[in-house]
Amino acid sequence: MKKVIAVLIMVLVVYGEFALAGEKASDGRFIAYDNGTVLDTRTNLMWAAQDNGAWINWMDAIRYINNYRGGGYTNWRLPTQNELMGLYDTAVKGKNGYHLTSFIELTGCCPVASQTDMGGAVCVNFTDGAWIFSHASQGECNRVLPVRSGK
After folding, report:
1. Is residue 6 part of a domain?
2. For the whole model, what pTM was predicted?
3. 25 vs 58, 104, 136, CA distance in Å?
4. Considering the domain boundaries, does residue 100 fall inside one?
């Protein structure tokens, strides 16, 4: 019985911590939280505050997203190319010189989208806004930027 109570308390503490994530900063459209997430208030999509941080191929991107638990959430997925394009903003030069909010850090230009095209990966280049169609094992689509719906 004590073990069950201890587990329940631990679950409440863990989920409570994530439910109470504090707001770090806001720019009117995006809200950065202290649990490593960023909410886009225009689309109601929640983004990871940073990409996976290293070159990744398509199959490893799928494995990465299926195991990603940022902010304590388990329902992360790869974004669509339209969702990625919704982040692209020529008026902004964020971290590492990419055209998206400074609340999200890309360590490489081109996060992969959930779509594929004739056996290749699709991604968005945050240097110039171009869509890239790349063989799944090549390096153009080289980062994972997790997204989930809602707050």
Report:
1. no
2. 0.81
3. 33, 12, 36
4. yes
